[in-house]
Amino acid sequence: MTSNGLANGSAEYTVPLQINGQEVTTKNTLDVVNPATGKVQWRSAAASRGDAVKAVEAAQAAFPAWAKTKPSKRRDIFLKAADILQSRAEELGAYMVEETGSEPFFAAGFNVPTSVELLKDAAGRIVTIAGQAPVMGEEGKSAIVFKEPYGVVLGIAPWNAPYILGFRAIAYALAAGNTTVLKAPELSPRCFWAIGSVFKQAGLPDGCLNIIAYRPQDAAEITTELIEHPAVKKINFTGSTAVGSIVAATAGKNLKPILMELGGKASTIVLADADLESAAHSCTLGAFLHVCTAQPPSSPNTATDTSTTFQSGQVCMSTERILVHDSILPAFSTHLKTAISQIFGPSNPAPILVTAAGVSKNKNLLTDATSKGARILTGDPHAQESSDTRMRPIVIEGVKRDMDLYYAESFGPTVSLMAFSTEEEAIAIANDTEYGLSAAVFTENLAAGLRVAKQIESGAVHINSMTVHDEPNLPHGGAKKSGWGRFNGSYGLEEFLRCKTVTWRD
Known about the structure:
Shape: globular
Structural class: alpha/beta
Largest sheet: 7 strands, mixed
Strand content: 15-25%
Radius of gyration: 23 Å
Number of strands: 22
Oligomer: single chain
């Protein structure tokens, strides 16, 4: 693939599709807007139904040879891809900053290195794939249970952590011997082009990974075409619950398995014995950041280490509700306001959301809540920022069930502060949502933390750390309408393998 480097950073450049190892341009294109400037950064090729079918056919043709490729060979390609990805961190990080409005640290300093680790994790697991030889009940009979790849896997991943989520959508599937079609989001197609470029450079055979983007107005038709194609054997989707429901319905109608990680409404429970300063700091990060390098107050580097990555709560694991024991609520509120002021003070620019629609959504949720009696603790929802894609953090109190914000995922810089009197009440509020992706508990008593964690209906609960946490060796997924199945690690590898039982008479 010849398109690379930062030279192609003008609106005249068009990000190509990648089908069967070739870069493909198309008649139709879509504009890719830099959310920080509001200007067209470049354009992307936009696939037609015919292009989508070609991508699936290329994956189908590549499957027999890739499935038979020795594990050590697949491992070596993955390890080479990890090295190449690391060497191109600055280049890929720049694409992410320009397409998503992320801070440079979150792009080149976190997203890329975490993706490198993901590739290494997948590489190390390839040689561990093994079946079983169970003992048969009847004398003179034997059996082997083989683990086999499905075939063509369709991956659909979002823009907000494009390298982590994009690589995740295809890495474990490829590691297991499947071939893939990756649907790139229209907001960050060049980041996804880079994923294909890295694997191409590492020697992945043509057709094993095909990457396409398409216009929003074509999404329903082309996505349905992809899911219903006979060669597509499994789908994985990361995105909103609303769109996930449509994708799952289409997969279900075609009796195809699907792995899904969807929206969240994460609660952080602060028990009466918690370290309030540490809890407030973590709640601030969990609610308003993608990720950061800022140390908690107990760190010896607190005074100097304040590097953060703003992304305004645009992550599915973001803290949406902070539940605080009523005996410590006043003191905690003070610590929370202090933490927000230190990290998001007026001297720092307001965080960027990827589109103005996200800002409007959060302001509408706040308007509805305050009109019904909720109160703003800190922040100004009416503040005018330098662009319509910027918004500063808001903490709101008194949110009740009759307010839209109580149940809706804000996916932005808004968090609700609520009081509780008993553990049972806190758990009931935390579980009073259709979502169940992540949660957190703050306490100095591990037994209490574990007791509460076991009762929260969530895919993950983090004790004394923020709700935003994911790493390649830990299973990641949700409960309820936050999805089903698990990405990452051995769980993620097993998602893309199926069993075949073979028996014989001795």
